[in-house]
Fold:
Amino acid sequence: MLKIRNVIYIILVTLLMVSLAFSVYFIMKTLQYTSTVDTKTATDEPSYHFVLISEEVGNPYWDEVKAGAKKAGKAFGAAVEFKGPAQSDKELHAEAVEAAIAAKVDGIIVQGLDKQLLKPVINQAIQQGIPVITVDGDVPKSRRIAYVGTNNFQAGFQAGQTLIKATNGSAQVGIVTGGLASSSQKQRIKGFRAALEKQSGMTIIAVESSHISRIQAAERTYKIFKEHPDVTALFGTSALDGQGMAAVVGLLDKTNEVSILAFDALQETLDLINKGSIDATIAQQPYQMGYKSVNLMVDVINGRQVPEMNYTKTKVIRAQDLPLNRPSMQKGRERP
Ligand code: BGC
Structure:
């Protein structure tokens, strides 16, 4: 009798242990599942809301800035909204900063376009506790925390040296610039003039504005040729100017006589360099500008010290630097 009781006792204890083990296993599983879900929601939910304001939305140059900013937003947990006028307009651009202040965003990244219009709104944002970083162009006299982008004076100087080389130091130069009020464009022209000052054979005979539009760049180029038929070189200071210039020079059948220096490395510009329609371009790093500005903004919000000036590099691209490796065409004119 005692034996039977013992066996029943052992069976009961074993059953109890097995059911306990099962319960522990399922409780662990549930806990694990809950914690996976929790971590996922935590990382997917952006911690900050930034706005990036550019001169023009939908412009291919700014699309590259946007791609870099998006990537950094994902990496650092920030939702980045992209704002700006549909077509370059400095007043609407400054108003977009005011709208971002009213929306109480966590940080404003803004192209330093028109210094005078932007200085008061940038200072207003800072006063209301919203950090501001300028990108592509700077507003150095404002209270913005940092600048990310090209050293535009240096890039203009580099452009001047490149054109001197391409023309053997002798040219009548027409400039088409993105905008006469744009801080980056003004700095580029200043640097370009500084480089040309050292070369007596180089003269700037016209400066026209394209409002960063390819079509207006073409129109302005045509105007330059009409007013100054002796133009032998062109410098386009914003991303689509060189493309507009190449179209007109091609139509006028002057590709072999006129040197074109462009800005930025958009695919169409590189294709035109490969075809021999554009001599060279000054490539900026728009993707890097977008990435870095978001990265720095997260640092600022977390109380980390950031450098004030964050220059991204530029480089000269000619046909021989491209994969197709088409040698740069020496233009037809005989040069000393
Ligand atoms: C400039 C930008 C400008 C863009 C227009 C770039 O070269 O850095 O300021 O908005 O061209 O396409």
Q: What stands out?
A: Residues 55, 59, 61, 136-137, 178, 182, 184, 212, 238-240, 263-264 surround beta-D-glucopyranose (CB under 6 Å). The longest strand covers residues 202-209.
